[in-house]
Amino acid sequence: MRHLTYKLLLNKEAEGQYTVTVPALPGCITFGENVDHAIEMAKEAIELYIEELQSRGEEIPDDSSTLEYSLNLTA
User: What does DSSP assign to residue 8?
Assistant: First the structure.
């Protein structure tokens, strides 16, 4: 079994919930009531996304070769 790595982007919404996007999987978006719930929902969404790709015989992308860096600027 292949080990897959995914970056999750969590954005806090005005209502306090978190929207989660998975950049390596276009359209893979979910949300959660808090950070832990959002991560749990993201795991489920990723698993379903991968199942769909497998059923179509498509390649499964991941972020294992992606470098991540946050740059802070003062404006």
Answer: -
CATH class of 1-75: alpha beta
SS3 state at 37: helix
What are the residue boundaries of the structural domains of the chain, listed by start?
A: 1-75
Give the residue from 2, 66, 55, 10 showing the smallest Cα distance to 34: 10
- The model's pLDDT over 34-73, given as tens digits with 9 standing for 90+, comes to 999 999 999 999 999 999 999 999 999 999 999 888 899 9
Q: Are 50 and 5 in contact (CB under 8 A)?
A: no
Query: Rounded to whole angstroms, how far apart are CA atoms 6 and 23?
Result: 8
pTM reported for the whole predicted model: 0.88
Answer yes or no: are the C-beta atoms of 14 and 31 closer than 8 Å: no
